[in-house]
């Protein structure tokens, strides 16, 4: 599947308690609930794959890959009440968040 002219927003989460299955599951449940935001074109929730090469960083706990029709939709998502509620409900679970935004070239 080739998606063109879209905005990709990829978020990586590191948990405060990385060995807690409950914390990981709570974060994933929050992301699944957030996935119903109508502005999101499509999404993927993932955990590190069992791969090992020098270039792979698998230190994160959960990734959240979002596809938007454009940057404006992603900007709208940032202030969506569902997104803000997710942050309120789940930010206590993570110690670090890194975001990579990309657009087509």
The SSE string, one letter per element, is EHEEHHE
Cα end-to-end separation:
17 Å
Main sheet summary: 4 strands, antiparallel
Count of separate structural domains = 1
In CATH, the architecture is: 2-Layer Sandwich
Radius of gyration: 14 Å
Number of helical runs? 3
Report the count of strand segments: 4
What's the CATH topology label? Alpha-Beta Plaits
Strand content: 25-35%
User: What is the overall silhouette?
Assistant: globular
Describe this structure as you would to a colleague:
The chain has 105 residues and is an alpha+beta fold. It has a single domain, classed as Alpha-Beta Plaits (2-Layer Sandwich). It has 3 helices and 4 strands, in the order E-H-E-E-H-H-E. The protein has a 4-stranded antiparallel beta sheet with strand order 2-3-1-4. The longest helix is centred in the first third of the chain and has 14 residues, at 21-34. The chain is globular, with a radius of gyration of 14 Å. 15% of the residues are buried. The model has no long low-confidence stretch (mean pLDDT 95).
Protein topology:
Layout: E1 7-15, H1 21-34, E2 42-46, E3 62-68, H2 71-78, H3 81-90, E4 94-103
Antiparallel strand pairs: 1-3, 1-4, 2-3
Feature tags:
Alpha-Beta Plaits, 4-stranded antiparallel sheet, single chain, 30% strand, alpha+beta, 3 helices, 105 residues
């Amino acid at each position: 599947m080739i998606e063109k002219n879209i905005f990709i927003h990829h978020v990586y989460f590191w948990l405060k308690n990385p060995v807690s299955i409950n914390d990981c599951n709570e974060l994933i449940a929050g992301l699944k609930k957030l996935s119903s935001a109508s502005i999101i074109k499509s999404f993927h929730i993932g955990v590190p794959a069992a791969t090992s090469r020098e270039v792979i960083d698998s230190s994160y706990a959960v990734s959240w890959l979002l596809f938007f029709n454009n940057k404006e939709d992603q900007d709208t998502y940032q202030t969506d009440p569902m997104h803000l509620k997710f942050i309120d409900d789940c930010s206590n679970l993570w110690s670090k968040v890194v975001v990579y935004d990309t657009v087509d070239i």
